[in-house]
Amino acid sequence: MARPHIEPYVELDTAYKKFDLSGFRGSEYKVLSLDVDNGACTLKVKFNGGYKRKPGLSYSDVEIFVLEGRIKVGDQVWTRGHYAFIPAGMHIGAISIPQGAEVILMYNDSEPSFEESDRNHPLALTEASVSLNTYTDAPWGPGNIVTPSVASGCLIKPLHYDPLTEAITFLYCMTPQFRQDNISYHDSAEESYHIWGTSWMMQFGLLPTGGYFWRPEYINHGAFRSELGIIAFGRTDSKLHNYFHYNPWSTVEENTLRAAAQLYRGRPRLYAWAASEGHNHPHGPQDFEHPHYHDNAQVRHLHGEPPIAIEEQAVAVAKQQAKKPAAKKKASRKKASKKKAASKQKVGRKKLSKKRVGKKKVARKKTKKKSRAKARRK
Ligand SMILES: [Fe+2]
After folding, report:
1. Architecture of the structural domain at 141-273
2. Ligand 1 center to residue 260 CA distance, Å?
3. 20 to 30 A from 309, CA-CA: which of 145, 318, 325, 364?
4. How far is the CA of 255 from the centre of ligand 1 (A)?
5. From the CA of 38, how far away is ligand 1's center (Å)?
6. Confidence check: pLDDT of 307 > 80
7. Ligand 1 center from residue 183 Cα (angstroms)
């Protein structure tokens, strides 16, 4: 089951709880949203001054956004506006927070976890990692990088993009006096945390600083207003597509049908294939570009399947790795014996040719001697 609809939720009104878990002691947390089936969650975490942690990793993809404070991570310093995507199994350096800090902390595949380690897990997809200061190291782009587009005055900084699910993590802002008069919904879940500022939405009212929502797919939101502007951190769990309309009474079921009708009209062959019976593809069709996408934890989660146990993956990889050297040895032994045979043949040929040359030389000498003797007799 996916996370329930939480909107609006103003976290500043609730108290922190002690984070009594290995790797997190010395910090406090609030739950903003939680998937009760797999423990995936978005937390607001306050690290108390003097917090320290050794290098380590988690078995879930982790995202972190620094709201306040300075966090020393290995040889990096993360300050306000820093964002990091840390793939499952990738280790990060020792953490030290002398003066305390506040962050949004997201575990995407399972409950928060920490294992001390100074190296990456062999299955960690480390190339997907991201670490940057979003305030200073990323430019604002127009909201129309997603079309159909939000109204002008809503700008976006894409921070992380998942090529399998097209899920996107981004920073967005609304300029002062931002207005958008239509109603929106998406195929994806949408999440937002207001870092600063207040916006207004027709369905859910005012969302101030510290305001949060986790909104499942196909739920109407809009029209929008913001008098002084906002800056916010947002995410989707799959492709972000804006479906706009002007019917404030449409239901989730009607919105879903309307989205499917657009697919029926605009991509008729794909709709016909996906909707027809008998494909026998309960875990998704084959994709020659991403042959192992069925194993991806986020893809499985989106389709209501539990993640593959990390132990099973590790055993499969260990088996593959164990096979490779044996095969190599066999191949190298074959090569060596071929070489040996070839060199033997070469030596044999050389000897033979030497013998032949020698015999020929002797024969030539004999014939020369005979001809000289004949000449003398004459
Ligand atoms: Fe939206």
Report:
1. Sandwich (2.60)
2. 18
3. 325
4. 14
5. 25
6. no
7. 9
What is the distance between the alpha carbons of residues 310 and 355, in angstroms, rounded to a whole number?
Answer: 68
Helix ranges (H only) for 76-174 are: none
Q: Report CA(193)–ligand 1 centroid distance (Å).
A: 13
* Residue given tokens 């074959």 in the structure block: 334
C-alpha to C-alpha distance for 222 and 366, rounded to whole angstroms: 113
- Interval between CA 60 and ligand 1 midpoint (Å): 26
Tens digit of each residue's pLDDT (9 = 90 or more) over 273-287 = 888 876 666 678 888
| Ligand 1 centroid distance, CA of 186 (Å) | 7
What is the band of 146 on the pLDDT scale with cuts at 50, 70, 90? confident
pLDDT tens readout for residues 41-61: 999 999 999 999 999 999 999
Q: Could you state, in order of their start, the residue ranges of all structural domains in the chain?
A: 6-133, 141-273
Query: What is the domain class of 6-133 according to CATH?
Result: mainly beta
The answer to whether the CB of 27 falls within 8 A of the CB of 51 is: yes
Q: Are 21 and 107 in contact (CB under 8 A)?
A: no
Token pair, residue 107, equals: 């575990």
This prediction's pTM: 0.81
pLDDT digits 0-9 by tens, 314-360: 666 677 667 655 555 555 555 555 555 555 555 555 554 555 545 55
